[in-house]
Amino acid sequence: MGKHRNGIEVIARGILVCDGKLLICHTKGASNTYLPGGHVEFGEKAADSLCRELDEELGLSSTAGKMLGVVEHSFVQKGKRHCEINLVFELKTRKLDTSIDPESREEYIEFKWLPLGRLGGSDLEPASLRKLIPGWLKRNHRR
Predict the structure, then answer these.
(1) Shortest CA distance to 87 belongs to which of 46, 44, 28?
(2) Burial level of 112, CB count in 10 A (0-12/13-18/19+)?
(3) Banded model confidence at residue 141, pLDDT cuts 50, 70, 90
(4) Does 102 score more than 50 pLDDT?
(5) For residue 12, what are the β-bridge partners?
(6) Which string of DSSP letters, residue by residue, matches the chain?
(7) Considering just the CA atoms, what is the radius of gyration of the chain in Å?
(8) Which CATH number among 3.40.50.300, 3.30.200.20, 3.90.79.10, 1.10.10.10 corresponds to the domain 8-142?
(9) Could you tell me the residue ranges of all domains in the chain?
(10) How much is the pLDDT for 2?
(11) 7 vs 111: CA distance, rounded Å
(12) What are phi and psi of 53, to 5 degrees?
């Protein structure tokens, strides 16, 4: 389940931008949001796990583009410390309608569109992504 024996979780996450909006995910009942993705399974390539998770959670066929960066994250959830390494990829898929939030296939999560201009003041975790994503997107579009 993407966990190293010392408890560090390996997570593949994707940056999907359509019409100036970023697709984000939210666990119902939690106060924060995060990029779509999930745990890298043992023996699975991170890019493959990202696409598998998007298919499972949204029924969305996608392709992981280049890796944009790596972000460490440590937090407490329900009294338990979690530590994760987030491998962040660009995410490519068909054009999506950003006027409505995509419907999740999983009962515990929901997806929504966040205008890129509101990223800095958002509740996206890890918080460092709020500053990193704009730079990654600029650098990626210059090439």
Answers:
(1) 46
(2) middle
(3) low
(4) yes
(5) 38, 87
(6) --B-TTSEEEEEEEE-EETTEEEEEEETT-S-BB-SEEEPPTT--HHHHHHHHHHHHH---EEEEEEEEEEEEEEEETTEEEEEEEEEEEEEES---TTSPPPPSSTTEEEEEEEGGGSTTS-BSSTTHHHHHHHHHHHHHH-
(7) 14
(8) 3.90.79.10
(9) 8-142
(10) 47
(11) 27
(12) -60, -40
State pLDDT tens for residues 34-92.
999 999 999 999 999 999 999 999 999 999 999 999 999 887 777 888 899 999 999 99
User: Which among 42, 24, 29 has a CA at the least distance from the CA of 119?
Assistant: 24
Whole-prediction pTM: 0.89
Give pLDDT tens digits for 40-56.
999 999 999 999 999 99
Q: Is the pLDDT of residue 125 over 90?
A: yes
The owner of tokens 């309608």 is: 97
